[in-house]
Known about the structure:
239 residues
Amino acid sequence: MTAAKILLVRHGESTANVAATAAEAAGEEVIDVGARDADVPLSELGERQAAALRPRLAAELGADRRGALVWSSPYRRAVSTARLALDGDAFVVDERLRDRELGILDALTRHGVDTRLPQEAARRRWLGTFYYRPPGGEAWTDVALRLRSFARELPAADRRPVLVFTHDAVVSLFLYVLLGWTEQELNAYLLDRVVGNATVTTLVADGGGWRVEAFADDAHLIAAGLPATEHPGAAHVTE
């Protein structure tokens, strides 16, 4: 790929983000999601966060906005964020940008996994989140394979900016894939960093390869008077 800039946008706060944070805080075993992962909508705050992305993206892309290559995860919360942020501009949906699939762990809190699936909890601790693949789900390495495929297929004929609406784990793994990091380097970087809702991570390419220009930047949310929610859930590779 030859894009000079990639903007990675995490979706706005979702109703499942709110439910998961509440369930973790209450020590519950199950998250009351109410929909399959692909159909989870934005919360009311998430919609406002997504709309607040409009001036940020306009400033980032400038005259290149109409020429930018724009993709979204197919999941409802990402598509809704893209629609609100782009205000009618077209984008392409690509299933390789979807969130990490949790399989048997889906809708369980950490306490729920420890209580209901102790063998899986032990296996995850032994392997580490990066390589642990829950039955029916994906490891972080599986998501990385999707992103390698996606990156290889980006048009190579120009250097138009790329804009991607996606999920926190996917944003983090773009760094792993494009910057050529190791598991340990990604762990260290994420140790005190979280990809907040509706934040913008900017990667730029120069003669020395890709580098992080901004990670999970929320200046546009602060300017709009909106909280920069995090809701990391089980997304941390360091858990």
